[in-house]
Amino acid sequence: MGGLQKKKFESGAATNYITRNRARKKLQLSLPDFRRLCILKGIYPHEPKHKKKVNKGSTAPRTFYLLKDIRFLLHEPIVGKFREYKIFVRKLKKAYGKTEWSAVERLKENKPTYKLDHIVKERYPSFIDALRDIDDALCMCFLFSTFARTGKCHVQTIQLCRRLTVEWMNYVITSRALRKVFISIKGIYYQAEVMGQPITWLVPYQFAHDHPTDVDYRVMATFTELYTTLLGFVNFRLYLSLNLLYPPKLDIKSESELKEEDEDDYAMGSESYLEKLSALSASLARVVTSTEEEEAQIDLFPTEDENMEMMEEKEKEKKLLEAQMKIFEGLKFFLNREVPRESLAFIIRCFGGEVSWDKSVSIGSTYEMMDETITHHIVDRPNVDKRYINRYYIQPQWVYDCVNAKMLVPVEDYFIGVTLPPHLSPFVEEREGDYVPPEKLKILALQRGESQQQPEEEEEEEEEEEEEDEEEEDNDEEDQVEENKLKKMEEQRSQGKSLQVKVTPGKVKMENPVRLEQEEKAEEKRLAIMMMKKKEKYLYDKIMFGKKRKVREVSFLKSRNKYSLLWERIHPFDPL
Amino acid sequence: MKKIGLKRAKEEEDEQKKQSVCEQVLTFNMSPAEEEEGDEDVSDSEESVYSGLEESGSDSEDEPSANQQEGRVLNEEVEQLEERVLNEEEAEQREDEYEKDSSDEEDIRNTVGNVPMDWYKDFPHIGYDLEGRRIYKPIRNKDELDQFLDKMENPEFWRTVCDQQTGSDVVLSEDQLELIKRLQRGQFGDVSFNEYQPSVEFFSREVMIHPVTNRPSDKRSFIPSLTEKDKVSKMVHAIKMGWIKPRRVEDDSRGRYYDLWTNEDSSSILNKHRMHLPAPKLRLPGHEESYNPPPEYLLTEEERALWEQQDPSDRKLPFVPTKFSSLRHVPAFSRFIHERFERCLDLYLCPRQRKLRVNVNPEDLIPKLPKPRDLLPFPTTQSLVYRGHSGLVRSISVSPSGQWLASGSDDGSVRFWEVCSARCVRTVQTGGAVKSVAWNPNPAFCLLAVALDSVVLILAPSLADGHVTSSSERLLKSQQEAEPSEGVSCNWVETKGEELNQWIRLKIGHPKVVHQVTWHSKGDYLASVMPDHSSHLQVLIHQLSRRRSQNPFSRNKGLVQNVSFHPLRPYFFVATQRSVRVYNLLKQQLTKKLQANAKWVSSMAVHPTGDHVICGSYDCRLSWFDLDLSTKPYRMLRHHKKAVRGVAYHRGYPLFASASDDGSVIVCHGTVYSDLLQNPLIVPVKVLRGHVITQDLGVLDVTFHPSQPWLFSSGADGTVRLYT
Question: Which residues fall in a compositionally biased region of kind Acidic residues (chain A) (predicted)?
C-alpha cells in the first residue's frame, strides 16, 4: 500500500541548503547589502556533499548557503537598518532633485547609523574566541592605518584604525607579549602571545600604496568596520586585564617630560596625544598607580614522576621565556633616521630596551645622540661620519635576529658595511627530515651555548656520513659488476661459444648478516605492499609520493646550498 | 554717449575754472552741479578716463566746434550771471545733450562703429563718413629705424600712444599722465575726492532719543500672526505624531568601547549552531619570504623565467624570493592590498568544508601478513638453467615421477631434460613450432602430448623403467582395435619409420591449429583447444584407448583460451576470453560460470582439490576463484607489471605461481583450509627473476615439480630455469 508518491527534492539535503539568489530574495536585500550582511555576520557558503541533489538535479554551478544560516539572518536588526539607509538615500536623492536644501540638511542630520557591538558579541561569545580571530583584524587595521588620508576610504576610519593599532602595540609593549618577528619582502610579521593564543600580524612597509583598480574597496571597508569594532573591544578588555587606563593615557612622569616639547607642532591636542602614544617610548598610566609587580608563585603539588618531569620542563620553558623577555634590558639604543622607527622602537621596548631617536624624526625621543650611555646605535647606511667610541654601530637586522634567537647574537656579523647573514623565518618549525639551513643550525648551537666552531664540525661529520653512504653504494656497484660478469658468461654459453675454462681462485664473500636481514625485511615489505587493497594502496602511494617529494626538495636545497657556498668561495664578491 | 558728453563738458569747465579768475564766481555758483558731476565720475571712473584720453588727444574738426559751443554757453552764462543760473545751466545742458546725441557728429573721426579695428588692418582707410567716402588712416610708414630714431630724438616719444580708433599718434598731456599715475596707484581719478571722509554711525550702541525713521509701526506688528500660528500648530502636531524628530544628538559611539564580555555565556547562538567552522588562519611565512633569504632559496634564471611563464594559479610560490643587501633597499610589496583583498574574499565567499586530514602512518596501511620465512618451503633461488633451445620455449611439463622435464619450443624441437642434472637426454625435431606439451599425469604411463600446427603428437620417450614403458605401449597398442570416431574430422595416424625413431607414436590430425593440450588425471583422455571465433568446434576430447575424438560442445560460447580437467571429479573447465565455464561431463551440462573480471584470460590452473581455480590474464591480473564461495573472484592480485602468461598450482604444497612478461615469476603461498568457513590465505612469498626479456616477452610458462617445492619456468630467451 504505497500511499502518495514522494516528490523529489522535498526532503533531505535539498531542503537544508538555499542558493544565494533565493536567500537574497528571502531577505529582500540587494546584492551589495546581502554581501555586507554576510561579511558582518560571518556567514559563508557551504559546499554540499551531493551537489546535484541539492541543486534539484541540475549541475549548474551555484553557491549554497545553509538554510539555517539564512533564517538566522532574518532576525538580524541590522537588516532593518539597511532598509532604513536605502530609504534615506532615496529621500536624499529626491531632496537634491528638488533642490530643497533645508530638507537635505535635515535628512543628513538624521542619517541612520548602526552599531556592531551585538554582532561582535554574538560572533565571539567568549573573549578567547575573539582573540583567536584577531589576526585578520590586526592585519587589516594596520593596512588601513597606512592609507593616505584622501580618497579610498573615510578619514575617520583611517584615524580609528591608527588609534586602535597604536593601542594594540602599546598593550603588547606593556605586557611584553611579543615572541617572534620576521622581515619579509611583504612587510614585517610579528607574533605575540596573548592569553596563550599566538597572534600573528603583518605590517606593510611605510610607503604610499598605489591603489589597484581591481580591488573592491567597499568589501574591504565593510570588513574594516567590523574589525575596528572587534579590535576596540578586545583592546579595552586587554587594557582592563593589565589595569591600564582605557583610552590609554601616558604615565604622569613621562607625560610631564614630553609636555614641553613639540606641543605647538600639532594643531589639535588629540592628534599630538596620539602621536605621543604612537611614539611608543613612554609607559602607560595604570588605574592603580602603585603597582608592584608581584608574580604569584605557582604552588607545587607533589605528583607522580611523569608529571614532575612535565612540571620541570614547564619551569624550564618559563625561565627561557623570562630570559627572552629581558634580552634588551639594560641596553640603550639610538635609531638613526633612516631605519624604520616604529617597528624597531616597538620591538626594543617589547624586550625591555631603552630607545630614542633624533628629535626631528618624531615626537617622543628621550635622549640625544650624544648620550654617552648609548650601547647600540642602529644604522642602515654604508658608513657614518661621526662615530662615538663606546657603542656598537649595527644594522637593524641584528635586533630582529636577536628576538628570534631569544638571545643576543654576536654583533660582529651586523656591523656597518658587513654582508649580513641570511634572515631566517622564525615560523618554520623543522620536523624530522626537513631541510634545515646551516644558519639555523648555527643559531641552535649558539642557543645551546656551544662555541661557534662546532657546527662546522657537525657539517664535516655529515659529509663523512655521506661519504659512507657513497661507499655503500660502491659496494653495491661492485656486486653489480660481478653479476654482469656472470651474465656475460651465461650469454656466451647460451650462444654456444666454447668458454675458455679457467679456474680462478675464488674469493670468500663476506656476508654481512645485518645487511642480509635488512634486505630480507625490505623484500618482506615489498611483498606485503603487493597484497594491499586497491584503496589502501592508493593512499599509501600518495603518502609515499609526498614523502619522496619532500626528500627530493630537501636534497635539492642541500645541493643548492653546497653549490652556492662553493660559488662564494670561488667568487667571493659575485652574487649568484 | 550722453554721459561722455556730460563729462566732457564738465572737464572743460574744470579747465576753465583753473584758468580764469572771473569765472570763479561762476564756479562758486555752479558748485552743487559740479559736485553731482564729480559723483558721477566716481561711479564710472573708467569711462571718464577713457573720455579724457579721447578728448584731449582729439585734434579733429569736431573739437573746435565743441569748444565753440562751450564758449557760447559760457558767454551766455556770463551775460546772465544773476539770473537763475542753475535753471539755465540745466536747460542748456539738456540742449547740449541733444546736440551731442547725434551719433554721426560725435563719431565723425571714425564711423565704423564698435568693431575690432584689426579688421581694417590691411586697408588704407578706417570706415566711411556720412557721404560714403573713405576715411583714410593717417599715413604712417614708420619702419623700425624711423621708430628708433624717433625714440632717440623725440623727447615726447615716451608719452606718445597710438590711438587704435583713428590710427594716429597722440601725445599725452600732463593731466592725463597724472591721471594714469593715479590710476596705476589704485587711487581715484579725481584729485579732489576724499576717500576717507568721516562717516556717521547711525546704528551704534548708544541709544538715540529719536528714531531713525519717523514712521509709526504697523498694526500687524501688534497682532499675533495667523500664518505663523498655523505653521507652529502644524509643527506641534507633527512632533506630537512623531513625524518630526528632535535633532539627533551627535552620535560619537564609534570608537567608544566598553567591556563587552563581562558575562560570557556559553549558550550563545553560535554555540547552538554547530555547523559554524572558524576560518583557517593564513599560512605563516617560510624562509623564502625573507628579505634576505639563504641563497639556496633564490630562484635561478631559468626558474625565474619558468615562474613568469606559469599561470598564477600553478605557481608554487606567489612571489619571487628576492635578496636585498640591507633593510633600506626593501621596496613596498606591490601586491599587498591584493593579498589582503583576496583574504577578505576567501573569508566571505569561499565555501568551507570540514576535511578530515588523513593522518595515518603509512606503515599501518601495510597488511600484517605471516612472514615468508614461516611459510617455507618454497622456491627461493635459481639453481639450474636448462639451455639448448634456440627459440622461445612456449611450454614445459614435468613427468609425474618428477625425474624428467619436457619442453617445447618455437624452434620446432621438443627436448627432454633430466631435472637434477640439466642434461638434455632426448631431442625430438617435430618440424613445426611447438605450442604446448603435456606429460601424461598417470605415473603408470610415460607419454607426452605435443601440440604443433594442427596436429597433436603422442610421444612415448622410453625414459621410464620397463614396466611403465610396457604399460604405455599397451595403451597405444590397444587403440588399434578401436574403430576411428565418427562425426569429428580427426584422423588418427600411427607413425612409422623415421618418426618412430623419434619416439613419435601417434599423430592426431585436427581441422585447425591446436594451441593447447591437456590430460585427464587418469591418463586416458586428452583435450585439445583450437581457438576460433566463428566455429563451435573449438575443443576436442580424445580418448586414447579407443582412439576416439569427440566435440563436447555444440555451440560457440566465445573464444576458448584454455581447458582443464577436474583432478578428481568428472568436471571440465573451459576458460574463454572473459569467463571460466565449468561443465559436468556426466550430466553434460553447465554447472557454473565464473566471471574473471579481466579483459582477456591467458591461462588457468585448477587446485589439486578441484575447489579453487586461478586465472591469469593479459591485463596483468591474477584472479583466484573459490568455487564454493562465488562466481566472482575471491581475490584479484595485481602483482605483475605486464601480462600474465602462465599460472600453476603445486600438487602437494600450498603454493602457486604466476609468470609474466615482466620477466618475473611470483610465488605465492595459498593455503586452502578444509574448513569451509575459512577463506584461503594468500601470501606472496617470493619474486623470482632470471629470465631475460626478449622481444617484449618474458616468462612464458611455469610449472611445479610434482613432489618437491621446485619451480620450472620457461622464457622467451630460450632457457628453462629451475628454482629451488
Answer: 455-481
Q: How far is B715 from chain A (nearest CA, A)?
A: 13
Q: How confident is the model at residue B480 (pLDDT cuts 50, 70, 90)?
A: low
- Asked if the Cβ–Cβ distance from A423 to B291 is below 8 Å, we say yes
CA dist B1 → B98, B105, B489, B659 (Å): 11, 11, 145, 128
Indicate the helix (H) or strand (E) that contains A118. helix A117-123
Please answer yes or no on whether B341 and A216 come within 8 Å at the CB atom. Answer: yes
To test the contact with chain A by mutation, choose from B244, B337, B664 the residue with the greatest count of A C-beta atoms within 10 A, namely B337
Ramachandran bin of A91, using left for φ above 0, alpha for ψ from -120 to 50, beta for the remaining angles: alpha
Q: Is the pLDDT of residue B675 over 60?
A: yes
B327/A47 touch (CB, cutoff 8 Å), yes or no:
no
Check CB contact under 8 Å for A439 and B294: yes
N residues, chain A: 576
The reply to whether residue B289 touches residue A109, judged by beta carbons under 8 angstroms, is: no
- The whole-number pLDDT of residue A23 equals 94
Q: Report percent pLDDT > 90 for chain B.
A: 11
**Torsion sign over Cα B703, B709, B715, B721:** negative
ipTM, two decimals, is: 0.84
Lowest mean pLDDT among A183-197, B63-77, B639-653: B63-77
Separation in Å, CA of B498 to nearest CA in chain A:
28
pTM, to two decimals: 0.65
Q: Which of residues 688-717 of B touch A (CB under 8 A)?
A: 717
For the cut 70, the answer to whether the pLDDT of residue B621 exceeds it is yes
Phi, psi of B605 (to 5 degrees): -140, 145
Residues of A in Cβ contact (< 8 Å) with B290: 182-185, 422-425
CB contact under 8 A, B347 and A39: yes
User: Is B346 in contact with B315 (CB distance < 8 Å)?
Assistant: no
Strands across the sheet with A187-194, in order?
A: A178-183, A187-194, A197-204
- Structure confidence by residue, pLDDT tens digits, A140-169: 999 999 998 877 788 889 989 999 999 999
Contacts of B523 (CB under 8 A, 6+ apart): B440, B441, B442, B444, B445, B447, B475, B544
- Which tens digits make up the pLDDT trace of A52-66? 888 888 888 889 999
Among candidates A240, A493, A543 on the partner chain, residue whose Cβ is nearest the Cβ of B387: A493
